[in-house]
Known about the structure:
Elements: H1 2-12, E1 24-30, E2 39-45, E3 53-63, H2 65-71, H3 77-80, E4 85-86, E5 90-98, E6 110-113, E7 127-131, E8 135-137, H4 144-148, H5 151-164, E9 172-175, H6 181-192, E10 196-200, H7 206-212, E11 216-218, H8 225-228, E12 232-236, H9 242-251, E13 252-259, H10 267-275, E14 279-281, H11 289-300, E15 308-313, H12 317-325, E16 332-336
Parallel strand pairs: 9-10, 9-12, 10-11, 12-13, 13-14, 15-16
Antiparallel strand pairs: 1-2, 1-4, 3-5, 3-7, 3-16, 5-6, 6-8
Helix pairs in contact: 5-6, 5-11, 9-10
The structure holds NADP nicotinamide-adenine-dinucleotide phosphate.
Amino acid sequence: MLARHRHRNERLRPRRRLAGDTDLVKAIVMREHGGPDVLELQETPRPEPAPTEVLVRVAAAGINPVDWKVREESWLPDLMGEPPLILGWDVAGTVEAVGYGVTRFAPGDRVFGMPWFPRLARAYAEYVTAPSRHFARTPDALDDEHAAALPLAGLTAWQALAGTAGVGEGDRVLVHAAAGGVGHLAVQIAKARGAYVIGTARAEKHDFLRTLGVDEAIDYTAQPFEQAASEVDVVLDLVGDDDYGLRSLRTLREDGLLIAPPEGVSDAVAAAADRQSKRAIHLLVEPDAVGLESLAALVDQGRLRVEIEERFPLAEAAQAHERLQHGRARGKIVLTV
Ligand SMILES: NC(=O)c1ccc[n+]([C@@H]2O[C@H](COP(=O)([O-])OP(=O)(O)OC[C@H]3O[C@@H](n4cnc5c(N)ncnc54)[C@H](OP(=O)(O)O)[C@@H]3O)[C@@H](O)[C@H]2O)c1
């Protein structure tokens, strides 16, 4: 009993350093706000898992538009704090150690997640620590790179369509930017829930949209999308400016729902929705182990696949940002660590 007690208390104390222990790990540090060249490979202290946290050895880190928005100081600057800081939320890797009280994972388990969001997770690094319930087990069918591409985009689509909108059998769902990181997962999630799915993308991406299962693909460069889609129950607007919001409302049936993750709902869009007896809401994705498990189940059932447009080594994070910010990605971009 006494021995067990001592053991428990020891786990609450920081791990004692042993000779030869590596304290420093590689990470991409954002030196200051600015262009991609502010991202620099540096060495930083390895994090230690606090009680309830796991230490994950990162194998791959997904990149999302929010990363470059933080880099440019255009997204929640007060919450992000002053640089230098480490960007990145999407993680896949292997549990290296568990903190006091963790029961869900053991060293050696493969996990994926979007920990801490919207607080910094510091995922562009060799190690990350976060509460165990910000992770889920990686499905066997996904390698680490594909698993790292899934959490933030997949949870956004899942929380919007399955959670907020409750999309079900026969619903008509319009997904803007359907070939992008969030969009290509949203299309598949809506299809898996029995919806009729309309997606917008340039014509050269329509074959890709069809492999995801869209029922109708609209080339938004060839015609106004609101002329091609009507009586829609839910619009997931991943373009998200005022113009797209106002035009998307016109595609909705009465009481239909517009979800606008990128910029939120402006006063103009909210007022137009009210006038037309429709609903418009903003959504900010949250860490969600149950959501991750739902995504993993869809992957296991063969109903959700993750498309990677391009991989970059960690040291080339700046090039990866340039590629994503260019805006034409088909699926996701990941860093291999
Ligand atoms: N609130 C939240 O929690 C949350 C979460 C995730 C993402 N977001 C935001 O949602 C947006 C989308 O994220 P993402 O990761 O999917 O971005 P992404 O992967 O960079 O999106 C790229 C896609 O956008 C398409 N696109 C660009 N302009 C378009 C237009 N006018 N109409 C239709 N498609 C268009 C491109 O296809 P084409 O080449 O065919 O144009 C491309 O496939 C970003 O602004 C992101 O910050 C918000």
